[in-house]
Design brief:
- By secondary structure, the protein is α/β, with parallel strands linked by helices.
- The protein has helices at residues 17-31, 114-125, 149-155, 169-172, 191-196, 219-244, 334-352; strands spanning 41-47, 50-55, 58-62, 65-67, 74-75, 89-91, 106-110, 130-133, 143-144, 147-148, 200-202, 205-209, 212-215, 268-270, 276-281, 285-286, 305-306, 309-310, 315-317.
- It has three domains: 1-35, no CATH class; 36-72 and 287-352, FAD/NAD(P)-binding domain; 74-285, FAD/NAD(P)-binding domain, CATH 3.50.50.
- It is 25% helix and 20% strand.
- It is globular and about 65 Å long.
- The two termini are 30 Å apart.
């Protein structure tokens, strides 16, 4: 943030939620930004001279609006969750806090992105019997050659790829979050680590039939694809390091072991058997635009925009996946996006007069 930098002892570490809140609050105080806390926006609509923003603290008239409400406001789960027997408790990551309140039986975690693997690990360490339903995922080591992997992503320019340079922008914006966990120990959390904790890996949950959860086959192919993408990423790091002759004292190139395929992954699970008491749907999130009284959201609930310029004059967005760059959803990644969006806004306001 402008003239406001991290000054702690661990620049390669991960801030806790509380530390992030304190950091942002400190910036707001130092910059004397007029932040309105404890204020809920209930609707945004067009007005004759711009927009009318209704909030729990009154109404705001403005000529331009920036939507920075994030992409993970509501958890998603497949429609067949309605066919799960009532005897099984179903939770989302918004409902889950820790293992203690859960019933004593086994837990099925659905989804192997960042949230899913973290919850599966915590539940397994608590002594629970855990199954993890695995679909497409992005494998990522926490550190590589002595540096945090996000250091490599930043320095090699991976995060800087622009939205107009991406081959399949729609797919890029829907990619699962990488399997990372910000523990002080800087350990990697992948499917091999979960298997070592006793987590049973099964395929993607495809359907419910007669009280049975049906899992797709092809775990070997799913694992191989994730491993291949990781190999390509690490190769790009090594190529970059050789090209600039940097960190000659760093450890040599390394590769994690391939993801181990279970000898016999089960294809179905009887949800009436009592083996599983709880299901945690770690199957992704979506934004919530129910407060937008404007025709700017497509049928899938996605905001229509081009590089942050929303399909409504004077309205902009920040912080969405690959908004203008691959790092757009990171706090540090929003800075360059913000400069370009603000430049566009300034031109718009100047034209409006």
């Amino acid at each position: 943030m402008p003239d406001h930098h991290y000054e702690g002892p661990d620049p390669d570490g991960y801030l806790t939620m509380g530390e992030v809140v304190d950091f942002i609050a400190g910036f707001a105080q130092a910059a004397q930004v007029p932040v309105r806390t404890q204020t809920t926006v209930t609707s945004v609509s067009r007005a004759e001279d711009g927009y009318r923003v209704r909030t729990s603290g009154g109404e705001i008239q403005c000529r331009s609006v920036v939507i920075a409400s994030g992409a993970c406001n509501r958890p998603t789960a497949p429609s067949f969750r309605e066919a799960v027997p009532a005897s099984v408790t179903q939770l989302t990551p918004f409902d889950y806090r820790n293992p203690a309140p859960l019933r004593s039986g086994g837990v099925l975690v659905v989804g192997a992105s960042a949230t899913g693997v973290q919850l599966a690990a915590e539940l397994a360490r608590s002594g629970r019997s855990v199954l993890l339903s695995v679909g497409e995922h992005v494998r990522m080591p926490r550190t590589y050659r002595g540096r945090d992997v996000l250091w490599w992503m930043d320095r090699t320019g991976v995060w800087d790829e622009r939205y107009d340079e991406v081959d399949d922008l729609t797919r890029a914006r829907r990619l699962p979050s990488p399997q990372l966990v910000g523990t002080p120990e800087r350990t990697s959390l992948d499917l091999n680590a979960l298997a070592d904790l006793g987590v049973e890996l099964v395929g993607r949950w495809a359907a419910v039939r007669d009280g049975h959860a049906l899992f797709s086959g092809g775990l070997r192919n799913v694992f191989s694809l994730a491993d291949l993408k990781l190999e390509r990423l690490l190769n790009s790091f090594d190529d970059w390091a050789r090209g600039i002759s940097v960190d000659v004292d760093a450890p040599p190139a390394e590769r994690p072991a391939p993801t181990r395929v279970p000898a016999s992954a089960r294809w179905q699970l009887d949800l009436h058997s009592g083996e599983i008491d709880t299901i945690v749907w770690a199957t992704g999130f979506r934004p919530d635009y129910r407060w937008l009284d404007l025709p700017v959201v497509d049928p899938k609930g996605t905001l229509r925009h081009t590089g942050g310029a929303v399909d409504s004059p004077g309205m902009y967005a920040l912080g969405l996946p690959v908004l203008r760059r691959r790092k757009s959803t990171f706090i540090h990644g929003i800075a360059e996006d913000a400069r370009e969006v603000v430049d566009h806004m300034a031109g718009y306001l100047a034209g409006v007069g």
